[in-house]
Amino acid sequence: MNKSYTVLFLLILSxxxxxxxxxxxxxxxxxxxxxxxxxxxxxxxxIVGLLEGRMDGxxxxxxxxxxxxxxxxxxxxxxxxxxxxxxxxxxLVWGDSIYFMRIELDETGGSNYQLMGISQILSVPIAxxxxxxxxxxxxxxxxxxVYYNKGNVGIGTKNPVDLLHLYKECALxxxxxGLRFSNPLVNGxxxxxxxxxxxxxxxxxxxxxYTGNNPALFIGKAGKIGIGTENPEYSLQVEGNSVINGNLGxxxxxxxxxxxxxxxxxxxxxxxGDSSSSNTKFNIIGSNHVDAAKIEIGKGQDESxxxxxxxxxxxxxxQFFTETKIRMQIRDSAVVIGRPTPDKxxxxxxxxxVKTRQIEVEIDEWWDNVFSPDYKLPSLEEVENYIAENNHLxxxxxxxxxxxxxxxxxxxxxxxxxxxxxxxxxxLELKKENxxxxxEIDNLKITK
Length: 448
What we know:
disordered N terminus, 5-stranded antiparallel beta sheet, Immunoglobulin-like, single chain, 448 residues, alpha+beta
């Protein structure tokens, strides 16, 4: 059987009245049947909803209460301490809006709720209003947080110009204006963020301890930024080692390499590696190892520093490759150009003149066999016929071949020596023939 009840606001208590949740207020009502009789000792289910602005306004809060009427049909619940269905009382600003209470009831204690009525809350819960929107304070507090959402907050000034404005007149070098963060459970537990008075010109500092012995970050009035120093001389100055995990882009929004530059680079002084030499402007060193190779570009102050130096230690070499093949090596004892084991292909091509004091050519064959007893020396008649037919000496490349294919210096020197040795044999034969003719002439003279 459906019953009706009369809603009566009997008592509104302050926050401090409830130990479990101070952000709640009491609601009491007497339930009567259609004949006006109270409904005593009855389990009932009640849904209380709060609507903002008007009777059909937006629901901002609702909760379920399951309770029991007493001997006089009275129910007594704490709005804010029921089973929450939607929203929170913490976010309601009682002084800035009007609210309506909607009551839904199942007098049997079940879930078949019927709307009993909607009425405006004419008497704002005093404790909530005093806490949320009193004229003396704009601070807000929920169950765990305190916050401020109207205007600026000033510390040291009554005219703050930003959300949080810290102000302090620092008369001594030890006076600082800022925030300090401490954790007694951590070594080096104090951090300072703010303006230090002992820095001129002043700037914004972040220190890893309050004494200022470990500056982490400094931003000066001139736009200079220091990391690890409070006295930067450049736009960005970093004291100590720096590590960048990822790619760094200069004029590149999406760098693809460890250092990706989208324009030209000009470097006044650059040191890559480490060097104690005062005559070098640019050094590239393989590592800190004593035998590491390095490249030095001199400053040009004297004869030594006018050079580009490729330096290796004992046993090392300077090597030049094309793809995976070594083409040139500069070793401790020699300069090797070409393949380590030269073959018949060209190992060095010079498009111009070469001037040298001495050339040593290594070849695989030499022509000392001309003076061997079993060497067959062509006759002068055979040589004459060959020249008449080919226009060059036997065994010597033609002019056409040399012009088109070039000349092997070692091989050509051997061929020329061979011809000289053959010529020597021809001269010796001619000498013998001349001596024989001279002897025959002398005999003829005697006969006469």
